[in-house]
């Protein structure tokens, strides 16, 4: 059964679409699913139902693909001010939050948003980082800031071995 896409995908296009399906970018994932289904499905409505998008989205995507190929389906830069802190800042924040807050001046041993923002600013060498920036960086990594976290301290010299499940 021939699909409404109009032609068979090449091996190179299939490989690219396979990579897009494993991408963390939702746009690429959805576009890859649509094209792969459109190659085999007889109409746009069936593809739209299967993927969960509007039928016109499927038609537009197929039209752009026929005219420009996969290059035309690459996500375009979005308008607006570029992000000030990228993925490296998010990774730095996650690493920072796995350190003891006491190393960063927290006498009570708790990470708070303000304290995390100050520590991140020092680590990145910038003047300041806002609380909402910390929240957004965590959100990009699918983490949430739910409440103040406390570090557990033990006076037991065997604590590390016991914590890691070692027997001795």
Assembly context of the chains? single chain
Question: If you compute it from the alpha carbons, what radius of gyration comes out, rounded to the nearest whole angstrom?
Answer: 24 Å
Question: Within the largest sheet, what's the order of strands?
Answer: 1-2
Query: Hey, roughly how much beta strand do the residues contain?
Result: under 5%
Helix fraction bin: 40-55%
Tally of domains: 2
Shape: elongated
Uncertain residue segments: none
Largest sheet: 2 strands, antiparallel
Number of strands: 2
> What are the secondary-structure elements, in order, as H or E?
HHHHHEHHEH
The chain-level mean pLDDT equals 86
Q: Give the helix/strand class.
A: mainly alpha
Distance between the termini: 65 Å
- Per DSSP, the total helix count is 8
List the topology elements.
Blueprint: H1 11-21, H2 26-40, H3 44-51, H4 55-68, H5 87-97, E1 110-111, H6 113-124, H7 131-140, E2 149-150, H8 159-163
Antiparallel strand pairs: 1-2
Helix pairs in contact: 1-2, 2-3, 2-4, 3-4, 5-6, 5-7, 6-7
């Amino acid at each position: 059964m021939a699909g409404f896409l109009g032609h068979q995908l090449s091996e190179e296009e299939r490989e690219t679409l396979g990579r897009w399906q494993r991408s963390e970018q939702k746009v690429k994932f959805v576009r890859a699913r649509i094209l792969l289904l459109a190659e085999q499905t007889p109409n746009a409505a069936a593809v739209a139902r299967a993927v969960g998008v509007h039928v016109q989205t499927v038609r537009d995507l197929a039209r752009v693909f026929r005219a420009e190929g996969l290059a035309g389906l690459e996500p375009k830069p979005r308008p607006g001010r570029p992000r000030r802190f990228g993925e490296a800042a998010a990774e730095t924040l996650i690493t920072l939050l796995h350190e003891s807050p006491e190393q960063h001046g927290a006498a009570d041993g708790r990470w708070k948003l303000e304290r995390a923002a100050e520590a991140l600013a020092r680590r990145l060498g910038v003047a300041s980082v806002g609380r909402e920036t910390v929240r957004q960086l965590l959100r990009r990594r699918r983490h949430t800031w739910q409440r103040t976290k406390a570090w557990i301290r033990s006076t037991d010299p065997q604590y590390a071995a016991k914590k890691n499940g070692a027997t001795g």
